[in-house]
Here is the input.
Amino acid sequence: MATELRDESRMIASILAGDAQLFHELIRPYERRVYAMALSFLRNEADAEDVAQEAFLKAFRSLAGFRGDAKFGTWLVSITLNEARSRIRRRDAIKMESLDEPQDDQGHSSPALLRDWKEIPSEALERKEVRSLLQKAITSLPQIYREVFQLRDIEQMSVNEAAEALGITVSSVKVRLHRARMMLQKNLAPQLKQMAPKRRWWAWS
Amino acid sequence: MVIECKHVWAHISGYLDQSLPPDVLEQVQKHLEHCEICSAILDSTRNILILTADERVFELPLGFSERLHARLEEEIKGLEP
Here is the structure.
C-alpha cells in the first residue's frame, strides 16, 4: 500500500489504544529508509542494522510522545539520526570526525571538468562495483553533507522536511546539499566515466 | 549579462531543483547553451543523482525484516500483562 494512502495517524491512535501489533504494519514502508540512513552514518552493515532496530524500538516506546504536527516518517528519521549520532559518538570517541569537517559556506569546490558526458544508464547498478562505488562516495562525505544528501536526494524528502528532521534552517539545507552534490560530482563523475565502455553498446565516451 | 563558468557552478544544485530566481535561471540557461564544460557538469551531476537515488544502492541485508519484526514482537509481548 502506498504510504500516502495509509492513514498513519489513525494507525498510531489504534496502537496507542492497545493494538500494538499494528506497529509492524506502520513501519513496513520505512524499513529501507531507516536502514539506509543508519548505513550511511555507520558505514558498517552490522552496526547499521543494530541502530535501525534500536530506532524502531525507540519509536515504538515513545510513540505516545509523537505529536501529529510532523509526518511519522520525518519523526522516525529524527529518531534514527539521533541513534546513529550517539552510536558514532560512542564508537569514535577518540577519532573526532567533527573536527575535520568544514563549516558551511567555507571553501570552494570546483567540479570535475569533463568535456563530454554521456549518461550512465541505471542498468549499470546491476554491477556490484558500480553500487559499491556509489555507496563509498556517499558514505565518505563529511557528516553534515552526508545527512542532508541522504534525506533529500536518496530519501527524496522535501527541503523543508529535511530541515525539520535535521533541526537546521532551509537555507543551510540548500547550501549543504549543493556542496554534497558537487563533492559527489567531483569524486564520481571521472570514476564512472572511466568504468564505462566494457560493453560496446554503452557508448558512454 | 554574460556570466562565467564559476558563477554557473554555484547554481548547479538550484538549477536541478528548479529553485533559481527567473533572472539567474535565464543567465544560467544562456551560458549552458554554448558551454560544453558546464553542460557536462550539469549532466553528470543530474545523472549521479539519478543513480544514487536508486534503491539498489542501499539494499536491505537478507533477513533484515524478519530479524527486525522478531525483535519488535519480543518488545510488544513484553508489554502485555
Q: What stands out?
A: Confidence is low (pLDDT under 50) at residues 199-203 of chain A. Chain A is about 60% helix and 0% strand. Chain A touches chain B through 54 residues (CB under 8 Å).
